[in-house]
Amino acid sequence: MAQEPAGDSGVEFRADAAGAAVPGHAAATQVTAPPAGPPAAAPPLPPPAAPPAPEETAGAPAAAPPADSRGPLYVVGDVHGYLDELRAALRAAGLTDEEDRWAAGTSRLWFLGDFTDRGPDGVGVIDLVMRLSAEAAAAGGYCKALLGNHELLLLGAHRFADTPVESGAGTATFRAAWMLNGGQPSDMERLEDHHVQWMSRLDSLAVEDGHLLLHSDTTAYLDYGDTVEDVNDAIFQALQRLDSAETWELFRKFTRRFAFRDEDGPQAARTLLATFGGARIVHGHSPIPYLTGDGDTAIDEDGEERPLRPTEPHLYAEDLAIAMDGGVTMGGPMLVSRLPLAAEATDAAVPAATA
Questions:
Q1: 44: how many CB neighbours lie within 10 A of its CB?
Q2: SS3 state at 175
Q3: What is the mean pLDDT of the chain?
Q4: Is residue 175 domain-resident?
Q5: 175 CB-near residues (< 8 Å, 6+ apart)
Q6: Where are the alpha helices (DSSP H) in the chain?
Q7: Looking at residue 132, which CATH number applies to its domain?
Q8: Which pLDDT does position 346 carry in this prediction?
Q9: Tell me: the pLDDT tens digits for 200-212?
Q10: Per residue in 50-96, pLDDT tens?
Q11: What number of other Cβ atoms are within 10 A of residue 156's Cβ?
Q12: Cβ atoms 95, 107 nearer than 8 A
């Protein structure tokens, strides 16, 4: 199978344009998407619905509506605390209105994880997703979310704080690892029990309309079962045991990346699809420029150097995988896309002028 960085040092490793491993960015540069120009002041978010909607909690899911009554399917890549960018992207996709309320009727929306860290308002993102889940369900659609490695890291930092963990870089603590990977003290200060319960009950895998949805582009999901239900239950149960070493191991495994990128990638993708179902994997976690190896800048038709940013999801691994992380932490766009893709993504990264 394709080689994956171990990710066991306590740092979420990324890759530069040449493919070398480098630590993840602790903070982002200015984000240019959504549209340029002074943004209108966003209205304050109302309190999240409490308790979370039934479809977000552990246990048997509510009965699915008939397939012919379901609305279109959308997915959102990594958010990382960029609440304003998420609001704008959801409005642009027609999923929410100008007051950030659900406006898409029976549409279905999946978030692929990593709601917090690096950006300014991770708890605000969680509040928005929780509220949209209740509003979408009331309208006959749904808004659901998957567990990302940064949720695992935040849960660990909250629950275990300065408890030592064994990392490849030497013994560290959950809190130190969280801070090193972009943890925001303001998020920790505002984190409440209902946020913690919501994160700890998120599923890790889902199959929708022939798409296998997951956060990390890793084969580590195979370590927890051979069905979607088994994997979701195994990870859920592990988080309920409140064991620091077990939570650290989950974080370490799901920080791995690039399983579908290289020569053995298509076979790794086929293995996951054959095991869990679906015809195509849809994931977040690895920013598209790191998957394509295109670097951070390009020369445009005027000979000017411009930031290289994806404008659409990246289809790769012999069309078996779709990457959804537009790299919002690096100034890229917040990708919200309807599945199946309207057109095959053949060149996901193109030069884009700065504002």
A1: 7
A2: helix
A3: 82
A4: yes
A5: 157, 160, 161, 162, 183
A6: 83-92, 122-138, 149-160, 174-180, 185-190, 193-200, 228-240, 244-254, 265-276, 288-292
A7: 3.60.21.10
A8: 40
A9: 999 999 999 999 9
A10: 444 444 433 444 455 555 578 999 999 999 999 999 999 999 999 99
A11: 24
A12: yes
Distance CA 316, CA 79 (A): 22
Nearest to 238 by CA among 180, 127, 166, 159: 159
> Would you give the distance in Å from CA 353 to the centre of its chain?
26
What's the token pair of residue 339? 């599945």
Distances (CA, A) of 123 to 31, 302, 317: 19, 42, 34
Whether the per-residue pLDDT at 196 is higher than 60: the answer is yes
| Full residue range of the structural domain in which residue 324 is found | 68-342
Token code pair at residue 106: 């029976």
Of 185, 186, 219, 195, nearest to 205 by C-alpha is: 219
How many structural domains does the chain have? 1
CB 280 within 8 A of CB 320: yes
Is 39 part of a structural domain of the chain?
no
Q: Are 83 and 126 in contact (CB under 8 A)?
A: no
In a domain, 220, yes or no: yes
Structure-block tokens of residue 309:
């940013």
In a domain, 18, yes or no: no
Query: What does the CA dihedral 298, 303, 306, 309 come to, rounded to 10 degrees?
Result: -50
pLDDT band at 296 (very low <50, low <70, confident <90, very high): low
